[in-house]
Amino acid sequence: MIILGVDPGLRTSGYAVIEQRQRQLQVIDAGTFSADTELPLPGRLLQIYRDIDILLREHDINIMAIEQLYAHYKHPRTAILMGHARGMFLLAAADHNMPVDEYSATRIKKSLTGSGRAGKEQMQRSVMSQLSLARLPTPNDVADALAVAMCCINEHNRQEIIL
Amino acid sequence: MIILGVDPGLRTSGYAVIEQRQRQLQVIDAGTFSADTELPLPGRLLQIYRDIDILLREHDINIMAIEQLYAHYKHPRTAILMGHARGMFLLAAADHNMPVDEYSATRIKKSLTGSGRAGKEQMQRSVMSQLSLARLPTPNDVADALAVAMCCINEHNRQEIIL
Predict the structure, then answer these.
(1) Which of A13, A52, A66, A77 is the best residue to mutate to test the B interface, defined by the most B CB atoms within 10 Å of its own CB?
(2) Among B6, B26, B10, B7, which Cα is nearest to B18's?
(3) CB under 8 Å to B152, separation ≥6 — which residues?
(4) Long-range contacts for B122-126 (Cβ within 8 Å, ≥24 apart)?
(5) Residues of B tagged active-site
């Protein structure tokens, strides 16, 4: 099973591609897309869309995992702009017939650390440990993409155990 | 000059294609796209994107006109979802190399009625009058798309006069 975790943003989006064979996990690709901030919004969205499209063609991904929207945002305008970028990822997934799993921030934290209130560093340490990485994952966009991908893998493994 | 006015939404999006020859205006196409609300979000976004793409192929449009984002929204989550749909329109415009003009709600109202605080019905009457329509434009999504297209046309004509 190959899972793509994504953390969409209008400036920088993080992604992480994790493969699970039996119970062995391997990060096969991870990084960020950066959109040219001097471009007007439509041009930036096109850059983001094309970058995701290339990624989805490169790997044989089974599921895209992404953070759920909250009910409340401190900065609604910024959040709506993020919504534009998030739409690019969902569109690309639909265009590739790829299912999308959404997880709340609390569920991601709980899945990785056992606590829905875990801080950023605890999350990074947990991701590092579970994926046997040599150092803490950075930048934040990649760390968040790894976390949502790991949450998706944990949830699917849990379902298999229950079944 | 052919202007496309759009009013993006996740359920229903309105569009209006207006052609200006000299100072004669003609609505050459107008209507709504409705996305299947039973589909998950990515599938709905794909429907919306494909509908816009077909529209942009049908007409030789010069500019897409769209309402600007506000600073504040009453319902941030709904607004972010609207942002996903809005992103589809901007992406389609960029993919067709089409410039996008954004206008604030106040500017649209002022351009059509002389008052930035005009109500919905006053706006509809103004659109009806300026476009010599036989009746009030409906539904709201189409009325709003006509209004933003008219605002764009008025602003461009004004610039020509100033120049």
Answers:
(1) A77
(2) B26
(3) B3, B5, B63, B65, B101, B103
(4) B123/B147
(5) 7, 67, 141
Percent helix, strand, coil in chain A, to 5, is: 50, 20, 30
Give the 3-state secondary structure of residue A123.
helix
The C-alpha R_g of chain A, in whole angstroms, comes to 15
Q: Do A77 and B83 touch (CB under 8 A)?
A: no
Would you give the DSSP letter of residue A69?
P
The whole-angstrom separation of Cα B118 and Cα A38 is 35
Q: What is the pTM of this model?
A: 0.93
Residue A41 CB burial class (10 angstroms; 0-12, 13-18, ≥19): buried
Instruction: Give the tokens for residue A12.
Output: 């920088």
CA–CA distance, A14 with A89 (Å, rounded to integer): 11
- The answer to whether B63 and B151 are in contact (CB under 8 A) is no
**What CA–CA distance (Å, rounded) separates B19 from B153?**
9
Which of A40, A43, A91 shows the shortest C-beta gap to B45? A91
pLDDT in tens, chain B (163 residues): 999 999 999 999 999 999 999 889 999 999 999 999 999 999 999 999 999 999 999 999 999 999 998 767 778 888 899 999 999 999 999 999 999 999 999 999 999 999 999 999 999 999 999 999 999 999 999 999 999 999 999 999 887 776 5
